[in-house]
């Protein structure tokens, strides 16, 4: 009997790999310890309001890769959606990411784009030539006033540590604009699946050569496979033999109200004395249908360290964890018959489109050397 391929995790990485393999003649088992597919992108209708809820926090699909955009549209129509984020700082509401409106409002000025660029340049820490930490990147990026107002407190709550211990690469993901453009992302393709992410991932997995087994941890599977594509936590695969890598998890406090709650999809709360990081109101993530809902549901989001029984959301990648990560990566290279994929499997902070792009590349690499049809 020909051995199957196993994809561990029914999120984007596992689903895309399974589909690509199935379409090229392989039999695939997809396992996930949760009771649903789509991983942390899972969406479902709220029982009380009927609103499509992003159960593990908001997910906005954005990409510059036209092939990835076409790929997701194969399985579920992507509806146009522009992410416009607000932030409440010291009792005032501002636009995020920091743009010309934010700068003028915060400093009480009416600067032109050229004037604002010169003004921020004068505030920025020019003595920091090569930022090594999040804090140094922020100070070089926008100067102390904007950094302390919009980034320092939010980061301490989101990551649970001093920003001086976080790598600079995290802040490099955030734009700074000298125009009134309030689109949080700059990618040409942006949207949200019309029927939710779970419908999208279910469509990817709908193939006769794919078996999906839910509520089933990989460790409980008693079967030999030709190859394993693993998207679970990297250190968990090795039973945490070398130690535990740092992850953050999230808690959500729901709020139900009539009408609307805050009037926007996402409002950040960077002030350090506010315990939550942001509030998301989920009817705004589907503007094409929001008018039919009389009620609303919103979630206050709290970030904390990931414990043994928690769901890991994203890797912390502390500068001090570099050696431990390198040791695990050495173990990965020595492991035969396994490919580590996804945000958790590669211990990297990547977006959904990159996960799909990487998954397609991993599957095609395997197919090119193991294609049963050749």
Summarize the structure in words.
The protein has 374 residues and is an alpha/beta fold. It folds into 2 domains: 5-82 and 189-246 and 310-370, NAD(P)-binding Rossmann-like Domain (Rossmann fold), CATH 3.40.50.720; 85-173, no CATH class. Helix content is 30%, strand content 21%. It contains 11 helices and 17 strands. The protein has helices spanning 12-22, 66-75, 100-107, 113-123, 134-142, 144-159, 197-205, 234-237, 322-334, 342-345, 352-370; strands spanning 5-8, 28-31, 43-45, 52-54, 61-63, 78-80, 85-89, 92-96, 189-193, 210-213, 227-230, 247-258, 266-268, 278-281, 295-305, 314-315, 338-340. Strands 8-7-13-14-15-12-16 form a 7-stranded mixed β-sheet. Strands 10-2-1-11-17 form a 5-stranded parallel β-sheet, covered by helices on one side. Strands 5-9-6 form a 3-stranded antiparallel β-sheet. Helix 1 packs parallel to helix 11 (352-370). The two termini are 18 Å apart. The mean pLDDT is 94.
């Amino acid at each position: 009997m020909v051995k199957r391929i196993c994809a561990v995790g029914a999120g984007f990485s596992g689903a895309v790999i399974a589909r690509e393999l199935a379409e090229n003649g392989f039999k695939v088992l997809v396992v996930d310890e949760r009771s649903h597919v789509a991983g942390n992108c899972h969406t479902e209708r709220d029982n009380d309001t009927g609103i499509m809820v992003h159960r593990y926090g908001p997910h906005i699909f954005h990409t510059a890769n036209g092939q990835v955009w076409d790929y997701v549209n194969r399985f579920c129509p992507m509806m146009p959606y522009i992410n416009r984020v607000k932030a409440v700082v010291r009792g005032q509401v501002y636009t995020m990411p920091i743009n010309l409106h934010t700068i003028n409002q915060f400093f009480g000025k009416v600067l032109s784009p050229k004037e604002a660029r010169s003004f921020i340049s004068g505030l920025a820490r020019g003595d920091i030539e090569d930022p090594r930490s999040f804090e140094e990147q922020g100070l070089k990026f926008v100067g102390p006033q904007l950094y302390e107002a919009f980034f320092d407190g939010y980061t301490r709550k989101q990551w649970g540590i001093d920003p001086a211990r976080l790598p600079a690469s995290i802040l490099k993901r955030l734009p700074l604009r000298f125009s009134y453009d309030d689109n949080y992302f700059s990618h040409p393709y942006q949207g949200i699946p019309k029927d939710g992410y779970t419908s999208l991932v279910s469509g990817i997995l709908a193939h006769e050569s794919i078996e999906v087994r839910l509520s089933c941890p990989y460790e409980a599977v008693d079967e030999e496979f030709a190859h394993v594509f693993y998207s679970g936590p990297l250190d968990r695969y090795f039973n945490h033999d070398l130690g535990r890598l740092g992850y953050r998890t999230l808690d959500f406090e729901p709020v139900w109200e009539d009408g609307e709650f805050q009037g926007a999809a996402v409002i950040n709360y960077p002030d350090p004395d506010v315990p939550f990081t942001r509030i998301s109101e989920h009817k705004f993530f589907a503007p094409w249908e929001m008018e039919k809902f009389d009620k609303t549901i919103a979630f206050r989001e709290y970030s904390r360290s990931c414990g043994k029984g928690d769901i890991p959301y994203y890797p912390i990648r502390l500068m001090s964890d570099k050696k431990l990560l390198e040791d695990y990566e050495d173990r990965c290279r020595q492991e035969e018959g396994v490919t580590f994929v996804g945000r958790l499997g590669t211990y990297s902070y990547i977006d959904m489109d990159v996960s799909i792009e990487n998954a397609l590349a991993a599957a095609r690499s395997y197919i090119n050397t193991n294609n049963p049809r050749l």
